Amino acid sequence: MLMERLLVHANNSLVAQSLSARKRSKPVNGDGFGVGWYPMHDDPEPGVFSSIEPAWSNRNLYQIAGKVMSHCFFAHVRDASIGMPVSEANCHPFLYGRYLWMHNGHLDQFHKIKRPLINQLSDRAYQLIQGNTDSEHAFSLFLDHIGCNDLASADDMRNGMVSTMRRIMELRRSHGDNTNAYMNFGITNGQTTIVTRFSSKAGEQPPSLYFAKGKLLPDDSGEFRLMPSDEMEKKAVIIASEPLKDFQKDWIMVKSNHMLKVDAENNLDIESIPLPFQDDI
Fold first, then answer.
1. Which helix (H) or strand (E) holds 185?
2. Model confidence over 167-192: pLDDT tens digits?
3. Is this prediction's pTM over 0.85?
4. Which CATH class is domain 96-209+254-281?
5. CA distance 144 to 61
């Protein structure tokens, strides 16, 4: 399917959310955007297009989304944290080899753990950092946990995600960082996709996260339909911070402190994240 059906034409598309997100207290995400996609031809590494322009006004985004088909893609609109530079190096998704990484949320008081985190990175992972976001540093930590291995298994990716989050929690605890860390992380290699919804403080909700699944079909309006599918049919999984369409019954909210794993056949598993709350450690 063309990327534009989800990115542009859906009535609550990512472009729409860049101007007026429905699930955030600050609705505008105008500090840039990025799209990373896996080609339909025989190439395991994704392409990425990013810009510091708002998604709603970038002509190239509309052109690319209307011409590119992909079986798997990540897309992100950015609301930069206060004091954080607006630059292409800080736009998600971040890329390494076959991997794309995104983050919705923030590691509050990241300055307290930035140097200790960097000191624990391998030279290879450290050299990959191009910007200065907490998100990209977390990605480098994840890459270290999987040994920067382009061929990591689904279990290795899952365990690497949990280890990354656990290490961030340990660093925060040991450096007196006791405010909230919202870790809605996403990682994919085009075959396995893992997405988390996590808040480090008990009783506080992280940014929203939803999923929908079924047979993905275009409709006459240029949008898409999700139809029920049996086990033998090729089904799609869409994971988004907000439902992309108004048919709420098609969208399921992910519980706080849970993780989604989608395999190459688009089978979806949900599990709780085996991490302690910041309040409890």
1. strand 184-188
2. 999 999 999 988 899 999 999 999 99
3. yes
4. alpha beta
5. 32
